[in-house]
Amino acid sequence: MNEATPVLLEARELSRLFPVRASGGLFRARQMQRAVDRVSMSIRAGEVLALVGESGSGKTTLGRMLLGLTAPSEGTILYKGMDVATHSGEAARSFRREVQVVFQDTGGSLNPRRTIGQSVALPLTWHRGLDARAAAVEVDALLEQVGLAAAHFRHRLPHELSGGQRQRVGIARALASNPALIVADEPVSALDVSVRAQILKLMFDLQRERQLAYLFITHDLGVVRAMADRVMVMHQGRVVESGDADAVLNAPRDPYTQRLLAATPVPDPSRQLAPQRS
Ligand SMILES: Nc1ncnc2c1ncn2[C@@H]1O[C@H](COP(=O)(O)OP(=O)(O)OP(=O)(O)O)[C@@H](O)[C@H]1O
Q: What is the pLDDT of residue 26?
């Protein structure tokens, strides 16, 4: 990864305002909060960018805007140099196909009435135009790639699976579109501690095999140290520090990053989750 690696996704001065919620859930008239406040950033092909910050700092809102799931209030998002607000045709299709998501909530992100095979097949038919027979072959290959025996899992429903197995399905579904970038929003924090390392290892093996870029939203600074090339620290909607992951974790410059690191020691054994990055 270097300056010559093409930029996939870029945000320029991106903001999102929400009405401020008063106690009791009612909105206070005209009072707006900048959940994301003029954030500029970019992700290169094959790069792992970790997005960290305490709860409410705007990480999910930024991730959702980059995915096209939440509309920005201000600013621009470029995918492969094209403005996603105005692109159309093949450029718009390639953005929808190549930028995928893995959610935290493994239960809610899969349709409970669709079999695992059907859920993974959908992007194959939508995005890649495969017919039913070709999609079935590819579904099996994807399930095996994420460590699920296809013959055993393809006809099951989500509720028959464990949280870790469901997250493997979520990853298979994201991979089905042949993505260039996956936005992973706390993908293991809802899982049992015992399966977190397995899912993280799977994600990072796939990242290396497929040269995927990840925007990895996490609270876990151990994961950042083990896996990220770069890290971006958010506080109250703004990016307060960003840079090479080792440099930021070893010598944070911003006082907020220093406090975050002091509050959550970074365990070195997490390096065993994935091969060390060069
Ligand atoms: N749909 C919404 N309507 C109103 N306010 C919202 C909405 N979504 C997010 N917010 C507010 O925007 C701020 C940022 O929230 P966001 O979920 O992006 O933070 P986060 O860093 O991802 O937090 P967490 O780690 O808890 O998920 C919060 O104050 C939140 O209450």
A: 62
Q: Which of 61, 65, 188, 216 to mutate to test the pocket of ligand 1 (most atoms within 8 A of CB)?
A: 61
**Whose alpha carbon is nearest atom 28 of ligand 1?**
56
Q: What is the CATH number of the domain that holds 168?
A: 3.40.50.300
Taking the C-alpha atoms of residue 226 and residue 267, their distance in angstroms, rounded to an integer, is 10
Please check whether residue 1 lies inside any domain of the structure.
Answer: no
- Provide the ipTM: 0.96
- For the chain, the domain total comes to 1
Whether 24 is covered by a domain: the verdict is: yes
Is the beta carbon of 55 within 6 A of some atom in ligand 1? yes
Distance separating alpha carbons of residues 253 and 262, to the nearest angstrom: 13
SS3 47: coil
pLDDT tens, position by position, 195-237: 999 999 999 999 999 999 999 999 888 889 989 999 999 999 9
For helices 132-145 and 163-175, angle between their N-to-C axes, nearest 10 degrees? 130
CB 99 within 8 A of CB 67: yes
* pTM of the predicted protein model: 0.90
Low-confidence ranges of the chain (pLDDT < 50): 269-278
18 lines ligand 1 (CB under 6 A): yes
Q: Which helix (H) or strand (E) holds 13?
A: strand 7-21
Q: How far is CA 22 from CA 7, 87, 193, in A?
A: 40, 37, 35
Residues of the domain holding 32: 7-273
